[in-house]
Amino acid sequence: MVASKHIAIIPARAGSKRIPGKNIIDFMGQPMIGWTIEAALQSGVFDRVLVSTDDEDIAQVAKEYGAEVPFLRVNCADDYSPVSMATTVALRQAMDYWGESYGIVAQLMANCPLRSSIDIQLSIESFMEKGRDFQISCFKFGWMNPWWAATLSEDGQPSRLFKEYAASRSQDLPELYCPTGAIWLAKAPKLIECGDFYGPNHAFEPISLASAVDIDDGDDLALARTFFSQNSSSREC
Known about the structure:
The structure is a single chain. The chain contains seven helices and ten strands. It is an alpha/beta fold. The protein folds into two domains: 2-141 and 177-236, Alpha-Beta Complex (Spore Coat Polysaccharide Biosynthesis Protein SpsA, Chain A); 143-175, no CATH class. Strand 2 (26-27) and strand 3 (30-31) form a beta hairpin. It is globular and about 60 Å long.
């Protein structure tokens, strides 16, 4: 095999239930997946940007935006296979197809269109500087505070999940973070070995809420459009 390279893998299967055709629907003027491909290419940190899909239409759009799609996904294209498994399969396919070894593999979800090339660069820098094997992007919870979460009975009676924090002021509570599919990184040999980005000693790396939006349903889509419009307005000022 040739010298170690860095590869970005964008999983984008067909068959989304909540937003049909989600990966290639129009998002702010171009197909959803186009934003992720452009961010990966513009970051300048990858030798290859590969889209792993089981769908010819997605493959065609991906190629138009500059990604490589030399093969279709034949495994892990169902509703049940973990995305880490699909990425690991694609990584193995890439190694066999191009005869290359890879140092770092990035999994960039197509439904996170607001993560930028700068976000990718900074995440890679942190990953390398801290000598991590696995790194998962996350964002800090803000006004939507999980410490005050409750389940509701049929008549609306709350059952607090964290009773000890129910009366605490928000400024007195520990900060909480939630993973997002925007930028997952791993040393490629470690991912091959483990098959999961949540491997031993995995670490979280914070990014902004705007960059982290993970679109799974209509509400997420509306939120992403709002953030996009706000960012565009800021750049014009």
